[in-house]
## 1
Amino acid sequence: MAKRVLIADDEPNIVTSLEFLMEQAGMEVRVARDGQEAIDLAESFRPDLILLDVMMPVLNGYEVCQRLKSDPKLCHVRVLILSAKGRDVEVAKGRELGADGYITKPFSTRELVSKVRALLGQ
Amino acid sequence: MSPSSNRLFAVLRLPLLALVAVLAVAAIVWSDLEAPERAALAAVLTGPRIAMIGLLTVSALALLGVYQYRLAEATRQPALRIAESVQLVARSNPAHRLMQQGNSDLCAIAEAVNELAEQRERLLVDVETSVAQAKAGVEEEKNRFAALISELDQSVLVCNRDGRILLYNAAVSALLAPSSQPDAMQALGLGRSVFGVIDRSLILHAVEAIEGQGARGERESVHFVTATADGRRLRVRVAPVFGGASHPTPPGTGEEPAVRTMTGFVLLLTDVTEEVEIDARSVALFQDLVEGTRAALASIRAAVETLIENPDLDTPRRARFTSIVQVEAVRLSERLDMLSTDVSERLRERWPLAEMRGVDLLSLASRRIERREGLATRLETIDPDLWLRVDSFTLVQALSSLAGRLHEEFGVREVRFRLQAGGAHAQLDVAWHGVPMSSETAFTWQNDAFTLGGEDSPLSLAQVMERHGGEAWYQRDVPTQTNYFRLLLPLASEHAAARARPRRPNRPEFYDFDLFHHSGATDAFDARRLTELTYTVFDTETTGLDPANGDEIISIGATRIVNGRMLQAETFESLVDPKRGISPASIEVHGITPDLLVGQPGIDQILPRFWRFAEDTVLVGHNAAFDMRFLQLKEAQTGVKFRQPVLDTLLLAAVVNPSEASQSLETIAGRLGVTIIGRHTALGDALATAEVFLGLIPLLAAQGIHTLGEARAASQKTFYARLKY
């Protein structure tokens, strides 16, 4: 069965590439354009993994991550943070809040796909 | 009439009177005699008997004269001693009492004087008490000022017009005379010239600029950048200190402000080495970034635009252009990664954050929370050696506000702090026991402005963390039911931590600022008044008493007297390896055994340091000729020549009390009321000599000796000056 990936990012240009990439990798993809939408879609779409940007309107990526991880119904969702915020304090925060991985933008598409697969146990 | 002709007359007085009396009697008798009786008497007197009569008369008169002399002397000596002692009491030692000597009249005088001295002493004590009370207020202000200057991170130097250092704080010592450079330490001291530590021409230029501004009525301080001996860069700000006008000109009266003269200046020093370096590097980095990005983007843009304009490009060429886009994009990413870590570090360094021990920060926060918010606090696992780089004020505000809010909205009674290193940052946890907080609440709290007991602050925790280049988040440890906010804070750099722990010397010695008004060292020493000069009082211990035959110095001790005060904080003390044995007789005297001197520096190293210490001062010692001889004999070997004037307390004591037989340091000290501690250590003797010297100065003044030249001239005339080494 195809794995489900939720992409949460408000920047359309990167979303286009990510969507294409994930679909090409055989995933079923949905896109959320802000933090609240991400939570809502997480509940309804039930993704296996979420590609999470940090700088989003309404709720930022950290908040989304913490909420997901503290919700018993959703804490199994793998969280891969994909962010332009790359300082070590930010990476540390992401990790402490429960993210399963952190990739700084810009990134290699190949690396991204392999990381996603690894987190999905493929 | 001069004293000596006075004495001569006194001695001759009795015999002369006797002679006159006899002649008078003879004249009266003679006039009463009849002519034949006169003739008979004349016959008896003249002739051979005249010689006998003459001789007897002269002998009698001579005996009378001697008797007179003896009598006079018996009174004179004690009288002189009384006179000297009275002067001693009056000028130098109010506690001194006269001995009862000589005849009963003199004893009565001595007793009366003692009574007077007693009264005077009591009066002096009363006066002192009153003055002390009156000064208490002034002292407190001075202390406040001293505390301020002393604790400032800013280095402050106060100098008089000629560049004599009047005041400096610990920060200056750390900056200009770090313990890594012992020689620099000698150059920095009260009364010393600031030109020894900062370039003279720069300061003079700044002073001229200030005076020029003053004349034009402008009021800006001047600054310049200079380099220290060890290559650091200092920004020096020079601000004038004005004397003169006792009241400010009221504004709007249309009066010209009285022209004030500059009596001194204040130097504020800042180490800008890092700032300058950081600035330079930041600029370089930025340039790098811009240029590198331009280049890569150019390639990308050109390739992409080509692809767009030419949709029908053949496959190999198409592949070529797309490959360019990819390669350049990757290269740009890598470059960015490299630069971003560099840049974020530099940016952090630029924030004016202060280094502070983590423990201290938490103590501050705890105290505040306990007092203001009424919460208990506990410091749990704290790493005691952690040094943070923080804006302590806003951080304490943030912690306080957080604790207060927890108390109000969650009923939290106790807040616990944890502090440990976590990678490149410090982890500060603010923890409490209780029900979990929702992540919404946590995030809201982080972004809300502080409320501190009714006062609103514009800052939020998120902003404070941003300022520190750190991060914060809420977490819950389920097994222990502990909630905490974890704050990641920057650590102080190694170098900064070491520098932030300065030696804390005593408060700066406070000066009578009337050194402001003393002119510089341009006058020849001899014309200067004894009370105004700066002295280095020193003493040496040696291997023996024979400098010319190979005896060596084994210890030098010295102290400084500036403006009539001994400076406790500025002494010189050093043991010297004589590279030879010590005679048992001298070991008995000073107690320095050969094993104490093993590994001590040699005279070649110590003497130049001592020379530096005594630079520009008058040397003072007890039996200084002895010590000076040793120093002179070392000139060839060390290249160090002592050319300053020298005063000898032994000779000066003889000038003041020529009738005293013993002139040892102990006796003189006893007379002047000076207690000696640590006798026969070089420093101990130097200190005692210094106190004796200070006691002698007013006594010399009583004899009309006020200047150095006069003191030296008088010294040379004393008996002891005839002994030479």
## 2
Amino acid sequence: MEIIVLVKEVLDPDLPPSKFSVDTKNNRVIPPEGIPPVISPYDAVAIEAALRIKEEAGGRITVVSLGNPSAEAVVRKALAMGADAGIVVSDPSFDLEDSYLAAHILTQTIRKIGKYDLILCGRQAVDWDRGVTGPIMAEYLAVPVATLARAIKVSDRSVRVERVLADGHETLEMDLPAIITVSNEFGQARIPSAWGVIKAVKEEIPVWSAKDIGAEDAQNKDNPGEGRLRRLYIPSYERKCEFLTGERPEELAAALVKKIYSRETASP
Amino acid sequence: MTEKFDAIVVGGGPAGCASACVMAKSGLNVLLFERGQYAGAKNMWGGAFFGPQLKELFPNFREEAPVERFVTRHTFSFLTKKGSTTLDFKPAFSGPPSDNGFIVMRAKFDKWLAKKVEQAGAIVVTSMLVDDLLLDGGRVTGVRIGKEEFSSDAVILAEGVNGILAQKAGLCSGVSADNMKQGVKEVIALPKQTIEDRFNVNGSEGAAMEFVGSCTRGVPGGGFLYTNKESLSVGIVVELGALVKNRLKASDLLEEFKEYPDVARLIRGGKTVEYSAHLIPTGGLKMMPKLFSAGVLVAGDAAALVLGTGLILEGANFAMASGVAAAETVITAKKKNDFSETALRDYERLLREGFVLRDMHTFKETPRLLKNTRIYDLYPEVVFEVLENILENDGKPRTKAYKIAGKVIKTRVGFARLLSDLWAMRKMT
Amino acid sequence: MADLKGILVVGELGKEGLASITRELLGVARELLDVAEGEVNLMLIGEDVSSYAEEGIAFGADKVYVVNDVSAQEFPCDFYTHAVDQFCRKAGISLCLMGHTDLGRELAPRAAARLRGCICMDCVEIRSDVKEKEFVQLRPVFGGKAMAETASQRGVIQIVTVRHKSMSGFVHRSDRRGDIIDWSDQLQKGPVRTRLIERKTEEQEGVNIENAPIIVAGGGGIGGKEGFELIRELGRLLKGAVGASRVPVDEGWVHHNIEIGQTGKIVSPDIYVAVAISGATQHITGILGSKCIVAVNKDPDANIFKVSDVGVVADYKELLPYVIEHLRGASK
Ligand SMILES: Cc1cc2nc3c(=O)[nH]c(=O)nc-3n(C[C@H](O)[C@H](O)[C@H](O)COP(=O)(O)OP(=O)(O)OC[C@H]3O[C@@H](n4cnc5c(N)ncnc54)[C@H](O)[C@@H]3O)c2cc1C
Ligand SMILES: Cc1cc2nc3c(=O)[nH]c(=O)nc-3n(C[C@H](O)[C@H](O)[C@H](O)COP(=O)(O)OP(=O)(O)OC[C@H]3O[C@@H](n4cnc5c(N)ncnc54)[C@H](O)[C@@H]3O)c2cc1C
Ligand SMILES: Nc1ncnc2c1ncn2[C@@H]1O[C@H](COP(=O)(O)O)[C@@H](O)[C@H]1O
């Protein structure tokens, strides 16, 4: 089983809002100093999924990250978890904000890698929260896709996916090769072992450029992407909070119940 | 896997990074473990680095290291409830600021150091808490993380204050609160220009300010304020034992400290973006553990190699210097392939020849003397009262300064006590 | 493709007729016609969907295209992708709207890839900018820490998924007129690749969270399964639904289908009671539509209070038993 996992380097989503800032003039997020980017959490779950598939069905896991050269760190993290090989795709000419372009470049990368049975993505990259790369690539590569997987079972030439639904789940079946995007319900990503990290540090991670994958014209392709970003800003959701007062919990509870009933249209 | 390392370093602070760097540069196969998500993630300090250690290790640090500002102005203030007295030390430099004081933020600085360690050829593994040592008949042969084992010829413990592994190696037996200071710090964001205007500094210049007096409510210690690029580090460092005894909280003292006009004025309008607390081993030579035994050496805060002269706190430079000495010891030991306790004795010799142990000896009485609470409550008031009497014109005929001083001292301190304190302090600074 | 016209709403069915998101979208679509020009088209796919067409017209569709085909159920997303792709090409649609639902999340990027359209996922607002002749979408990004406003590109089809309940209500007019067109035979089927084996609904505990007027939700501070019993009891007494933040779900104290937030359910009850929830942006983004947010937290500085209308600083373990006692007394 040849498995490719796509991982993206993102701003740490657990960053407190106080450290999150936006350059509203250029519509850009300002990366906070001293806080390193992380692997997008769902992508870590995708690696976990790949590892479990490999443990069951055997095979090889190749991790690909498109981004700045610094994306090497998230690839190493995947290697430390147990992936077999990693590739960084990076070129100064790439516009990394555009998801179509990313899908196009990643598709070219997959073509260059050649053989694959399964491509795993995260359900969405937690920076722009789009969740489109996997399905777009499925169209480009003309392979089946299943999104929001919480369980994956491969057999010889096909794969069964349990997909999370708003009110339950569905089971889908596809022939291989296929693309699957993995959701957090799949389970927690394992923490790399120390030896895993040591092994990963020593691994050679090639950096492929636009030329290497035949994506030099990526910028000029008619890729409308997300459209023009007109404005990026930090919203204020602040409401005026009325703090209930009272010395003892009984008093607070009474005040709270009164408040709830006064807000409720139909009282008991 | 069964790969064996020449040396394993525990801790990615200044001590650990310096030692790993030196060993890796000399060709040793070195592994460094840091428990933080990245080196520096869990570390804090006031922020000023003294001494040329860094320059020795990284001659280009000025261009490369994430230095916030170079200290060009150093002030010492005595705070009282009524007002303050400040000494403002500002050499008229010609040329670039000296290498002798630069302000860094640990999160960025340690990360940079760790990068240097990697560039030197060592393997740095973060998010890994070393929980035990591998022992073979009293000899340390490696470390353990969970179920994973890592063997090496030598282990350098640069784990910082509390030295849990150093205890496990039998080099020391716990630490007492009386030998510890608690540091708490806030980082307060302010625009660059505001900082430069308020502190009277330009470009890469910066100010380091130390405070003693009523701000610690009689607990031995003091406050500090350092200028970063676009923020201020404001904190206090107080003796843990006395803190506990007086039922005070360091965080409350910091809040009070921030309200002193001398401080409030400087941090006005800023937004607190970070809060942290850390212990500092300031017991001096008396709390120093055994520095080495077969297969293992201790460096930096883990070895209590911190100098608190009262005016300033020096730990980082001591940590680096001791890390380097430990590294050199291991390099020599590797050549002879002898890691016995006797072979590692070199470490102590190197520390003695360098400034680390020499300074520690010079100031060996300091920790005890600094416990004299008069330094924190009485003397700042005395200084203030004397100056108040001299400078404030209340319309009455003037008295000569020394007479005023004499009167104040006599009523507030007593000459005998002052003399004995002064005599003692002679050894302190 | 310069003169694209009209809007396509990809319809979905709910328990009783059109799904509420589809109704919302039809209402939204009508307001966008100034830039979209043309008409509001609704596409309904499935077994015997013609019966819902009238309802579509009442909610705002000018034309309803019905595709009655059982195989749509077997290969749902593949089928929709072909249908949307073909229809949009044929009709020269300028804006294609769908819900950010189980279907929309997957369909939108696939259809967009085929149509080379502009794509915008999980919008909470879409409006037309008449001067620029473009559609403007607003969507939360970075886990709700920021909002991005994007504009469509002229001459390119815009494909948008819209977050449930984020837009103003819909208008139902039974006297509206429109055409119903059976498109079943016109659709040329494409390759199918993903087969549906089975679909299972997992019952949510208690009252359904998405339409509940009152929700009581517990967070990481609840500390365990036992603590949630208090939350459930409170929910019962208030006749509300029980919800949770991510932490209780990850810890396995509750089922994931009651998670609220960016990756869980988006809710907008009249009263949302957040107990021992810190107020991370990923959670907040899912409750912003709530009319009144009540927070109970022992940390006075907890972020949740910033977005709350009513706050109680207390340990829930001490507070809730009294609240429950009061409510029991009141309901007697
Ligand atoms: C408030 C305050 C102000 C200070 N001001 C100054 C100053 O102005 N100038 C100055 O020179 N010094 C100052 N110091 C002292 C200085 O910070 C320390 O002396 C210095 O950091 C010691 O370096 P170290 O490498 O020995 O230890 P640390 O910097 O503490 O580094 C130890 C590292 O080991 C890691 N670690 C610990 N245990 C394990 C384990 N089991 N496994 C893996 N990793 C582990 C820790 O995460 C940490 O990164 C200050 C300290 C404080 C608290
Ligand atoms: C990609 C991504 C997507 C995410 N999606 C979601 C999502 O959809 N929904 C979601 O909820 N989260 C989501 N999260 C997680 C989110 O970032 C937070 O980690 C999570 O919401 C925290 O849950 P919490 O506030 O309940 O728990 P905690 O962070 O553990 O906070 C517990 C709170 O309870 C208070 N408390 C503790 N004990 C008591 C007591 N006895 N009485 C009263 N108060 C007490 C504490 O003061 C604290 O404020 C996501 C995270 C990521 C990275
Ligand atoms: N630059 C990238 N490099 C590698 N994988 C990516 C990249 N962008 C997106 N992906 C993959 O596609 C998934 C969905 O991303 P997105 O469509 O941007 O939300 C992610 O979870 C990754 O698995």
